[in-house]
Amino acid sequence: MTIPKKETRKGTTVRLKIGALTAGALSVALVASGCSKTTEDGGSGDDKKAAVQSGLISYDAAENKGPAPAVEGGVKGGNVGILLPDGFEHLDPARAYVNVASLTGQLLFRSLNGYREDGKGNLKVVGDLAENPGTDVNKDCKVWEFKIRQGVKYEDGSPVTAADVAYGVARSFSKNLSEGPHYIQQWLADSKEYNATYKGPYDGGADLPPGVTVPDAQTIRFTFAKPQCDMPYAATMSTTVPVPKAKDTKTEYDRKPFSSGPYKIKSYAIGQSLVLERNPNWDGNTDPLRTALPDTFTWNFTLQADQVAERLVADADADKSSLSWVPVPAAQLAKTTTPEVKARVISGPTQYVWYMTINNNRIKDVNVRRALNYALDKDALLKAIGGSAAGTPATTLLSPTVGGFEKYDALPAPVTGDPAKVKELLGSTPPPPLVLAYANSPRRAAQAEAARKSFEAAGFKVTTKAIDPTNYYTEIGRKDNPYDLYLTGWGSDWPTGGTVIPPLFDGREIAETGNQNSAYFNEPSVGAEIDRIGGLPSEAERAKAWAALDKKIMTDFAPTIPAYYDASYTLIGSKVGNAFQSDAFGYPGLTNIYVKQ
Amino acid sequence: MVRFVIRRLLLAVTTLFAISVITFLLFFAVPSSPATVMCGKQCSPEQIAQTEHRLGIDKPIVEQYGTFVKGIFVGRVIGEGDFIRECPAPCLGYSFRTDEPVTDILGRTIPVTVSIVFGAAVMWLVIGVSLGMTSALKRGTVFDRFAIGVSLVGASLQVYFFGLVLLLVFVYSTGLLPTPSYTPFTENPGKWALGLLLPWITLGFLNSALYARLSRAQMLETLSEDYVRTARAKGLTKRKVYIRHALRAAITPIITIAGLDIGASLGGTVITESIFGLQGLGRTAVKAVGDLNLPIVLATVLVAAAFIVFANIIVDMLYAVVDPRVRLG
Fold this sequence. Notes:
The complex is a heterodimer of chains A (597) and B (329). Chain A is of the alpha+beta class. Helices cover 22% and strands 18% of the residues of chain A. In chain A, α8 (366-375) runs antiparallel to α10 and α14 (524-534) runs antiparallel to α15. The relative contact order of chain A is 0.19. The N and C termini of chain B lie close together (6 Å).
């Protein structure tokens, strides 16, 4: 899963990266010292005894086998248009990380694993290039083996091999191709500085990264120093897309990557347009994830968000088979309420949760932190950016999209806040003066103002401080930052609690700068519990334990204020069939849509 | 004349040099680093340093500037090891974000902006000047009052409002016109014109209002000059007096303003490009600033400045043609 664009961690104007749901897997990886067993049996896709792993990873042979289930009413042909305000920074699978590029990449590439979704909320990790989501060879999550399917071909008809997957991983170590996700690289190197020693296959480097072996043309094996039980999730990311060495054009690969998916590039003008046409060598029988019904896909990268909404609301002939990955702007939402347009809205939660983060270095009194939780008007925060279309008030640290999610409310208050409860909690303690920092964009400024008003209504004196959006996360990521409150968003790269709790709430990871734990929450018992959960034997147990830890953190320490669960609200044209919000990517996926005739 | 041109060209180069230095310094005065902005969630200080090294922004500013200028005149080599790339002159570097040569980006976006401005300028000059001149000649008539009224409306409107209204009426609601888009003129002139019609009308109408008022005022002032009265007293026809004497004198300040307007517009019609979804120089520049994409910021600023500087030179040269009283030297 990948992050949407703009205003995310590490850069407001930067990418929203969620590769496949985001980040802290590294922490999971590095702390999970004893993840003892996985429940899959490691059999091939044909093994009828293989069961669905308790959780989201499926070893069910039927689900891992091509072709993908037929789409009801789906017909072949036509062109699907995608209307966007910006082009992709990268299409090279080693460099692509934002969700819009990942959604596009699904048409061009096949990674080892992928997400199988049915539009009814069922999401499972299955083998894409691989016959199944990976075999945990020694049942200790340290050695993972993937068997490449027979008959998968590139756009020139040549076969996809395990060596190509290994080469794809190898080139992602290069500092010149460093924009993509780095989980697997860090696990292989057993270090955050993944390319300190092995620097990729260039300048005389080996074609195989350390820890990767290719016993035969169809088998690739990853050996990690520490248990990495999330490997089936990490293998959904584009790091594992095959790249034949002979076709590697280094930084030029971004402009014309070599297709292993159902479509290939027909024309690409960076920042202007992209046209995909069928890859005649793609065989649907090898692909459990894609029906690939439209003949072509055409991207237009030059439109404003308002313009996109206007066009899709109008549903003129030229746009009837178009969709967008840009949320409908707040000012245009009223136009989407008529029954005809409403039927064409695709909405739902994304992987993101937004927090009004409390700087625990400065607000040390848990009662004050609890009071702040009661004070915040979450409804006003949402109304400032479009209301329910932008999200729903949150009470948990984890997003509802995370496996094992359990709803709770440790500090129950009306969504508009509870000033009376604040006064009761603070008692005779004078409310401390607060500095609320925000990224200086119209959306965040409006939210900061709404937050300021709600805190002041509860008796706090608040000073707001605008920060350059490009520098926002750097600034609040400094351990000694002088702010008490700031709005931060976090989306997971894959749907497990391990990609949220460790990076945001493990105090042992706090450094002088570059902190993701911007609450600076440092509680030894939480660190110990993170380690314990990392070592649990099954995905289901871990999921349950993450949810329990989520509740414990908020109940006992209230280190932050869960503000709202992010939501996406986009439009499609009236001739787009089988479009639904991908739980993995937060926007409508393209692999199984069709053009109504 | 030659001396004049050489002198102005030298001045232009000095101006562009100063602008490039100021832009460079301003860029590095910003507290954030492009490497940080480009970095993802898993970004460590070491990775930021690695990216800064790759982008070449870890070197002293003077060295970076020297490399940039050298690249413009003699080209340069960018990257290291297997990633070395030849960047022939005039090398403006590669986009920090997409690794695309900046010259390619300019080659793609300048024609869009030039096309928008070209068509709009024709509209605003032809409509505005003829409306203003005719209005002056028919001073006090219904036509004059109507023209003043229309120009007042036009001068009061804003691009972001008028453009959106045109889009709503002609594209979204009625579908009378296709969605604005850019097709190269060489590829299909008809499609080129049709795709840019609404931006032309928007910019053309709004600017023509100003030009109508300016032309009218200039013409009225000129018509009140003694030499015009003398010419009429000598028996010249109205037509000859207006066209050969009055118009020529009245048009000089309009050329000055038009030159500056066209030059400035060529630097980027940001709002027009944004409203109509056209990826021209202006939008590219604005996005580059937000992304801290130094090579594109520098290139777009320099190109915009060059348009204005050279528009000024052309205006000065045109003076001599239009008004013989002006002597170049």
